[in-house]
Amino acid sequence: MIDKKSIEHIAKLARLQITENEATEFSQQMEKILLNFKKIENINTTGVEPMITPTEIEAYWREDEVVQNYKAEDIIANAPEHAGNLFKVPPVV
């Protein structure tokens, strides 16, 4: 059971400020969520094959091919400053 005090503790750990009404509301919502998980937990899945996806659609994999769409000169053409094929940037530190 997730009571109001637990919600306030979790909020404090997460550095969240919640009102007393919100703590009560979240506590009730968490209770409903846990009840739904309990229902799911009680479903008999005997004989049900585990699934990777919930649909029968097979994954489409394309061949991994290297495609060179741009030349280095094209990429740096709009750079404000460059040295050869390298971008010049201001010092960071």
Question: What's a concise summary of this model?
Answer:
The protein is mainly α and 93 residues long. It is built from 3 helices and 2 strands. The two termini are 51 Å apart.
Descriptive report:
The chain is mostly helical and about 90 residues long. Helices cover about 40% and strands about 5% of the residues. It contains 3 helices and 2 strands; from the N terminus they run αααββ. The chain has a two-stranded antiparallel ribbon with strand order 1-2. The longest helix has 22 residues.
Strands side by side in the biggest sheet: 1-2
Q: Could you give a short account of the major beta sheet? A: 2 strands, antiparallel
Summing up helix and strand content along with how strands pair, one would put the structural category as mainly alpha
* Helicity level: 25-40%
Beta-strand residue fraction? under 5%
Instruction: List the helices and strands in order.
Output: HHHEE
Cα-to-Cα separation, first versus last residue: 51 Å
